[in-house]
Amino acid sequence: GVVVYRTTVRPRVDMASTKVEFYKGAFDDATLMKLKIYERYLRAWLPVPLSGRMKVSEAAIYDLFCGPGQDAEGNDGSPLRAVSAVRYHHEQIADSLVSLR
């Protein structure tokens, strides 16, 4: 499954260094809600490939547009929420024949 969501956070561009800084500020309420949904989705979805019913040997989580991990207020972003979901199922992952990347 692929999770696609839009955010209202716009990147801030420092023209002197052309460095893009997405989360120098705090996540807005909509972004925080989307992040909660994303983590809940992962927690609900991870047991499916790990159960062996899908007959897969490997599962992977890709988050190609993740930020640095936290916003300026310390709220976890999508990469840390994915780690949280994996840790939630760590025993099932250890007992599974499926490799999780």
Q: How would you sum up this structure, described in words?
A:
By secondary structure, the chain is an alpha+beta fold. Helices cover 38% and strands 10% of the residues. It has helices at 29-45, 47-50, 78-88, 90-95; strands spanning 12-14, 19-21, 58-59, 99-100. Helix 1 (29-45) runs parallel beside helix 3. It is elongated. The mean pLDDT is 80.
Shape: elongated
Supply the helix-strand structural class: alpha+beta
Q: In angstroms, what separates the terminal alpha carbons?
A: 15 Å
- Given as residue ranges, the uncertain stretches (5+ residues, pLDDT < 50) are none
DSSP strand tally:
4
User: Helical residue percent?
Assistant: 25-40%
Itemize the secondary structure elements and their pairings:
Layout: E1 12-14, E2 19-21, H1 29-45, H2 47-50, E3 58-59, H3 78-88, H4 90-95, E4 99-100
Parallel strand pairs: 3-4
Antiparallel strand pairs: 1-2
Helix pairs in contact: 1-3
Q: Key features?
A:
101 residues; two-stranded parallel sheet; elongated
